[in-house]
Amino acid sequence: MSVNSKDFFKKNVPHRLEREKRVSEMAREKIQIKKIDNTTARQVTFSKRRRGLFKKAEELAVLCDSDVGLVVFSSTGKCFEYSNCGMQQILERHHLQSKNLEKLQQPAPSLELQLVEDVNYTKLGQEVAEKSSLLRRYRGENLEGMGIEDLQQLEKCLEAGLSRIIETKGGKIMREICELENKGMRLMEENEVLRQQVARIPNVYIPHRANSENRMCEDGQSSESVTNLCISGGASQDYESSDISLRLGLPYSG
């Protein structure tokens, strides 16, 4: 039994087109833009969208040769940034541009004064751009467009700056060493003064006195005789010319 091809297409093609249409409509259905309640899903979505946003910013900078600066803060407070020419330079240009806009919005007292201010701001903007470019070169960035002479000049400047840094650091180290040496000398002088003061203190304590008392008590002598001996010994040291006689022995009874 043969089937007419025309009848087959009439029956099946509309159904297939209808299915493709429904699939296309589902694919084009927009996601509802509202806060994601689930924390994990919100963080995953933020990470994906952030990478896509940074990729678009990079493409814009490359394709259109424009300076792009992008700063994003997550819900947890973490900062993410992208810049193709340095975020500091972007912020400086934005700050300068904001000042220029403020000046333009304010009524100028005269056209000549406004022109002078515009020229000054333009010069300042150029100087900021030049200084920023030079600073990046000092950091070793954006060196591809420089010639050999410019690179040699930059090398000399860096060597001179490094030499001054080393010289300054060496001077500070030497000053600290001198201060430590002076402090050590002062401590030695104070130690010597204390040693001399201790040496001038009189020796009041007689070291042999206790030994003499112990030996005499062991020999059976009276404590009175021992006391007389100690007094006599001390007096003989202080007064060598004294004529004091001492008689040792047991006390006389009778």
TrEMBL record:
CDD domains membership: MADS_MEF2_like
UniProt entry tagged with the keyword Transcription: yes
PROSITE patterns per UniProt: K_BOX, MADS_BOX_1, MADS_BOX_2
Keyword annotations: DNA-binding, Nucleus, Transcription, Transcription regulation
Annotated MADS-box domain residues: 26-86
Record-annotated K-box domain positions: 114-204
One Pfam family cited in the UniProt record for this chain: K-box
Keyword Cell membrane: no
Name of the protein: Uncharacterized protein
Source organism of this protein record: Kalanchoe fedtschenkoi (Lavender scallops)
